[in-house]
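Data availability (excerpt). The following record was deposited with the supplementary files.
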Amino acid sequence: MTVPPGGPRSFACLWCGRTWQPRASDDLEAHARLCPDCLGRAGENPFLRFRLHAALEARAIRVGDRAPAAGADEPAPVPTHEDELVPYYEAGATEHDDWYLRRGRYAHGPIHDVAWQMELDAATTWLDGLPLHGELVELAAGTGWWTALLATKGELHAYDAAAAPLDRASERLLAHRLRAHLHLRDAWEPPDRAVDALVAAFWLSHVPRERLAAFFAVARAWLKPGGRFAVIDSLPDPSSGTVDRLPPPAPDLSRRRLADGREFTIPEVFYAPDELAAALRAAAFRDVGVRTTGRFFVLVTATAA
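Predicted structure:
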């Protein structure tokens, strides 16, 4: 098949791994990242069916973006402010561990902070007890709070879109005399291989609701059949953030102020356990387990079908 210069790039099918060259960027295969054979089996397989539905939606949105505006009767989409995530985490890399350690502006007094520490210990014990082994990927690794633990489980590749937090993750690994592969990579970037386990801590709360299914498709594509997906994230407790927490500018958004006074608006979505479980099953995960630690954290595990 001949593709004109500047045409769509080839890709590896997310299901069978076959390399496919789409004829045009609006082909369903290009949106679904599935070869025609796998796309044709969408009626037989939940994951393939999910990718087909996501591709149809994505193509419809793209066509709608190109269509001329009609009368401006449609409400303007609400900005998700995802573009502020990397600047926020770059700027605050030196203070993000204060959130875990309840230091400075994150200290809420003995009662709340002891409860926090107990639940953080429970989340750590839960993650440590999961059967994670082989090749592991950690998305949105940040300053490496969980990276040191995961590095003891297998060959770990820890990715983040911000460089400054990864520098601190590297220091943490060196302090523990542990090794991992640390690289700049956006959590939304399509995977280049399938691995045994995928971990994302405190990333789902930055995924807008309308993109949750798309991210779970990325997560499923990272995993071999039977691979383990593990998530730790936040519950909406007022004692989770800073004592001078700013009011949210809109639903599913957070206005964050750093110690130096700089402010950023970023996505902050608190997903209900039932909502996460349903979305994972729709994305071709099985053995889905979702529970909370009480006030602060939600713990999620699932297996790729």
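Summary of structural features: The first strand starts at residue 11 and ends at 12.
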